[in-house]
């Protein structure tokens, strides 16, 4: 069982101990509050390393960084229980859709716990009535204000199965880029497949080519929002590929987006004459975020907090997504928020590309996958986190390669970082009985002193939402570790007190600024240095203020956290 208890994993929504209460106006003056989300996973399987490299990881790192800087941040998420992928998986397993969603939601949470990536609040729509209520209420408001219209559209129909087919039950080629695609959004280029537009489509259940029959659908005509969406894009520091994507869509003309389906699984359309139709989760997902935020507020005794966070302009809303979710998070959902007129649109949309395995796409059907729950029991979570950051698919597809991961562990973490830390501890024990020497701030290697002074600002640039980069942060960290070890190796066999103090201060600084990427190693090292570790880890180092206190005793030997891989 991971560090969170079995009871927590059984509750309808999970909030780790120590999650902060966000101060409300009137209790504390605030300039900004951060609300962080990640794209909801389908509870139709466990998480593999490709999943863990993306939105879950980015959202967790940003939250840890912001809290270390003393900023108010909350990270909420939920599983897409109403997704059409759930009943398809249920049919394969011989379970009900609800049983399938419950099984994999639990596994997803357990894997996130092993990776130290659990949100502050994780909502289960099947077990939290807020979700369905939020979707219904906001749908009805959009219906009443004219945002949603009715159209008859050509819709794929399988003559063999005698049902309309959508998304998970339809497979073909993207009509824009030609790569294999399901029936709604292309995973590669992210563009929506118009009704009837998927090339070489086949029913997933039987392989039959569908017919296209007229079907009554509810749609959101996005063209009415083109000017307002453009104003949002222009003012937003989103990642460039997302900006290029949405700008191109506006220039081409925004489509009418179907938001309902004739199906027997999902949240029913809450209109009297729409029996047998359900709402598409690509439409309702934004209200899942609102409901999860409301769940967080209820868990800490502040039921009105969700409105403050979503309505006040001081809130910085950050969405972490895979690029294939760009249409929903960067186009459709901002349009819905604008149509409602009372909510803030996202400040940041931080996307990532696909993470492959040994040069090929992860494939559970072919057994080409590394499951997070298995790998994280074999390898140290912080080693996995650092490597996922070093190889992160921020702007282009990248790979997990086992040999490269072994080098991260053996060369960077064991051979460099912890070997340097152990040598500094051993020398301090031999010279000063493990007591930090009191020396002038100018003593010791100027290079090491400069590293300790500059590193917090350098890492902060990589962690700030405007310039967020897991790769940049990992690269800066690894570079600093290599420089520190190099300076130690170049020092005399018996380091002077000033040299010892400089290296200890750099090690303490590293422990603080590495925490967003390697929270376990950070806390482990900080405690050995005699530093107090709070619920949110170490505070971010302040310019001109040392992290360590002279005269403080540290552990007699550095206890390593990482083990070499064979």
Automatic annotation (TrEMBL):
GO molecular function: ATP binding; methionine-tRNA ligase activity
Source species, domain of life: Bacteria
Gene3D superfamilies: HUPs, Methionyl-tRNA synthetase, Zn-domain
Any single biological process term in GO: methionyl-tRNA aminoacylation
One cellular component (GO) term of this entry: cytosol
Keyword field: Aminoacyl-tRNA synthetase, ATP-binding, Ligase, Nucleotide-binding, Protein biosynthesis
Catalysed conversion reaction: tRNA(Met) + L-methionine + ATP = L-methionyl-tRNA(Met) + AMP + diphosphate
SUPFAM superfamilies referenced in this protein's UniProt entry, alphabetically: Nucleotidylyl transferase
One Pfam family of this chain: tRNA-synt_1g
Methionyl/Leucyl tRNA synthetase domain mapped to chain residues: 34-418
Family: Belongs to the class-I aminoacyl-tRNA synthetase family.
Protein name: Methionyl-tRNA synthetase
Biological source species: Amycolatopsis pithecellobii
């Amino acid at each position: 069982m991971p560090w969170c208890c079995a009871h927590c994993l059984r509750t309808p929504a999970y909030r780790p101990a120590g999650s902060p209460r966000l101060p409300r106006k009137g209790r504390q003056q605030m300039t900004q509050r951060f609300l962080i989300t990640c794209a909801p996973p389908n509870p139709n399987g466990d998480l593999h390393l490709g999943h863990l490299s993306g939105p879950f990881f980015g959202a967790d790192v940003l939250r840890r960084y912001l809290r270390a800087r003393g900023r108010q941040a909350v990270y909420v998420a939920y599983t897409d229980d109403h997704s059409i992928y759930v009943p398809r998986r249920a049919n394969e397993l011989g379970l009900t859709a609800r049983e399938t969603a419950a099984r994999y939601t639990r596994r997803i949470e357990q894997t996130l716990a092993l990776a130290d990536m659990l949100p502050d609040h994780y909502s289960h729509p099947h077990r939290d009535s807020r979700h369905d209520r939020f979707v219904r209420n906001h749908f009805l408001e959009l219906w009443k204000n004219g945002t949603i219209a009715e159209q008859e559209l050509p819709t794929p129909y399988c003559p063999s199965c005698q049902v309309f087919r959508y998304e998970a039950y339809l497979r073909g080629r993207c009509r824009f880029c030609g790569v294999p695609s399901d029936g709604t959004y292309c995973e590669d280029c992210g563009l929506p497949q118009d009704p009837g537009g998927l090339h070489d489509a086949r029913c997933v259940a039987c392989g039959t080519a569908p017919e296209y029959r007229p079907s009554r659908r509810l749609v959101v005509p996005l063209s009415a929002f083109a000017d307002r969406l453009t104003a949002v894009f222009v003012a937003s520091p989103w990642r460039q590929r997302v900006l290029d994507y949405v700008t191109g869509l506006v220039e081409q003309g925004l489509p009418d987006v179907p938001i309902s389906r004739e199906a027997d699984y999902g949240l029913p359309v809450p209109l009297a004459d729409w029996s047998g139709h359900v709402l598409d989760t690509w439409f309702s997902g934004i209200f899942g975020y609102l409901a999860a935020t409301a769940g967080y507020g209820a868990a800490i005794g502040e039921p009105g907090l969700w409105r403050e966070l979503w309505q006040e302009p001081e809130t910085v809303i950050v969405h972490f997504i895979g690029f294939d979710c760009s249409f929903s998070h960067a186009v459709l959902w901002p349009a819905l928020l604008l149509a409602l007129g009372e909510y803030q649109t996202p400040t940041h949309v931080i996307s990532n590309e696909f993470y492959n395995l040994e040069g090929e796409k992860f494939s559970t059907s072919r057994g080409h996958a590394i499951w997070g729950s298995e790998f994280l029991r074999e390898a140290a979570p912080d080693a996995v986190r650092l490597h996922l950051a070093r190889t992160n698919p921020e702007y282009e597809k990248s790979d997990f390669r086992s040999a490269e991961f072994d080098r991260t562990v053996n060369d960077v973490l064991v051979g460099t970082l912890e070997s340097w830390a152990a040598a500094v501890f051993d020398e301090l024990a031999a010279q000063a009985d493990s007591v930090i020497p009191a020396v002038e701030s100018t003593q010791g290697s100027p290079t090491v002193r400069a590293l300790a002074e500059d590193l917090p600002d350098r890492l902060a640039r990589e962690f700030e939402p405007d310039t967020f980069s897991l790769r940049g942060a990992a690269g800066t960290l690894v570079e600093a570790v290599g420089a520190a070890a190099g300076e130690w190796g170049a020092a005399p066999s018996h380091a002077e007190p000033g040299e010892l103090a400089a290296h200890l201060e750099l090690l303490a600084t590293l422990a603080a600024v590495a925490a967003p990427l390697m929270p376990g190693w950070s806390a482990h090292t900080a405690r050995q240095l005699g530093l107090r570790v709070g619920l949110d880890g170490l505070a971010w180092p302040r310019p001109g203020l040392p992290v360590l206190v002279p005269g403080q005793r540290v552990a007699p030997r550095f206890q390593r956290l990482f083990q070499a891989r064979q």
